[in-house]
Amino acid sequence: MTSRTVQTVEESDSNIIRGINQLNIPPLKLAVVSPADNDCSTDEKGDSIKESVDSKAITEEKDETKHEALFRQVSDLSPTTQDSLGILLKSLSNGDAKIDTDADGRAKIEYKPDKKIYWDGSNANIIAQPKSYIDIQQKVESCLELVEYIKENKPPSGVSFDSTKISLSGVKKQYRLGHEFHKTGKVLGSGNMAGDIVVLKDVKSGTEHAQKTIMISCFRSNEIKCWVDLNDTGYVPCLYLFKVDGNQITIHMEVLQNAKTLRSIIDEHMAVFHMVNKSLVRPFSLLVLDGALEAVSAMNEKGWVHKDLHAGNAMVQKVSDKSLAVKILDFGLAGRFDCRENGLDYRGFKSDISEVLRMFSALYTGGLEFNSSYDIEKNWRTEIHNWFEMVGMKDEEKEELSCLVEAAMALVQPGDVCSFREKVKEKLDEAMGDDEDEVMRKIIQLLFPEAFENIHQDDTVECDSVDDCIDSPDCVPGSSVAAVVQW
């Protein structure tokens, strides 16, 4: 046993001894001679006192033996367990915990609940109407605590990140519906813990942007912290403003133009790829895989893991006629990779990688998808083998999909992603061939035909077949193919 181990054990023993001493075990009571004993003879009194002393000595000897046995048992425990036992004894001595027994006679520990100031999250930051004296006291205490915090720390009610998009009022620096912005009536979608994501228009700048609303009781500060860290990376929609608005948090952000979620692409668009030009499936799938890995790596470099990444929280955006970008959305469950309380969050990292693979495999196979990140981690070999029986894939495509999934599942930390991306890039370059611009033009025309309509509306030709349409640079799908290409 090393000197450090001996020291640790001795420190633990000292803690335990102090804990036992703090339990305030009542001293052993000496025998007390009752008044009736005065009638006894001196010999009888002497014998009685002797018996009491002997009984006390025996009791003390037994107690000493019990303590020695107890300390021997404690010394056999690991240093960590001894430390925990010391903490338990301290909790027992100061009344924070008590030991009881259950119906089977087994010991159970009950801790006194922490004293917390009453605060109903769903009614946070609104005027309360208490119904009882106790309720009045609790509400007043909570409200005054908030006031004292504001007085001492002077926190803002929100933070604006882009004054060219968000035009605050003059001196008071407010941003209010009907004053500094208006609703447009457009709805982009809704979140799991938020209301509708609506489109607003800034009165002064004329800029349209999206607003997401979250109840304070459901809001997690990491959503904003992560977003701020990623705001200038280009992998997320720009964050314009967040603020406390009554019992809600409102988040104002960029509306991604010419962008579609991977969920909609998988469910609605990949069938078009397979029908129109199946050769585009492989380069597009590898392009998304590389872009998603790049975005996740950017998060990891900033110290974050997403932990809720799925096809609905990733978008493909048309940057130009020959370029696409992958964007990541919704950081409501994001967490620090280097969380001090729980250590490094490898579980969160693996979850993000598994979700990237889910999206990639769904694109690559034309819609076949793993049920969850757990499913891909435990059953990917079986699932992929079943897929091969269902879809007509070339042998080299089967091998490529299996190798990429296997290599990705071997990733255990963010530093491993770089070498994996190099493999993906090699395969992507091979899939693009010698004319990458032409391949990208065809992919983008399938994903965003409405954009090509606007670009070529003055110089278009109508084709009779889907294949002819894709091969014609000036084509807008004609009546015979519109049902296939437009959605």
Can you tell me about this structure?
- The chain is of the alpha+beta class.
- The chain folds into four domains: about 5-110, no CATH class; about 120-155, no CATH class; about 160-255, Phosphorylase Kinase, domain 1 (2-Layer Sandwich), CATH 3.30.200.20; about 260-445, Transferase(Phosphotransferase) domain 1 (Transferase(Phosphotransferase), domain 1).
- It is built from 15 helices and 13 strands.
- It has a six-stranded antiparallel sheet, covered by helices on one side. Strands 9-11-12 form a three-stranded antiparallel sheet. A two-stranded antiparallel sheet has the order 1-2.
- Helix 12 packs across helix 13.
- The radius of gyration is 35 Å and the shape is flat.
- The N and C termini lie far apart (about 75 Å).
- Residues about 1-10, about 25-40, about 455-470 and about 470-485 have low confidence and may be disordered.
CATH-level-4 superfamily name of the largest domain: Transferase(Phosphotransferase) domain 1
Radius of gyration: 35 Å
Residues in β-strands, percent: 5-15%
Strand order of the largest sheet: 3-7-8-6-5-4
Q: Helix segment count?
A: 15
The CATH topology of the largest domain turns out to be Transferase(Phosphotransferase), domain 1
Structural class: alpha+beta
User: How many distinct beta strands?
Assistant: 13
Major beta sheet summary:
6 strands, antiparallel
CATH class of the largest domain equals: Mainly Alpha
Q: Terminal Cα separation, in Å? A: 73 Å
H/E series: HHHEEHEEEEHEEEHHEEEEHHHHHHHH
Mean pLDDT across the residues is 80
Give the count of structural domains. Answer: 4
The low-confidence parts are 1-10, 24-38, 455-470, 472-487
**Inertia-based shape:** flat
The CATH architecture of the largest domain comes to: Orthogonal Bundle
- Helical fraction equals 40-55%
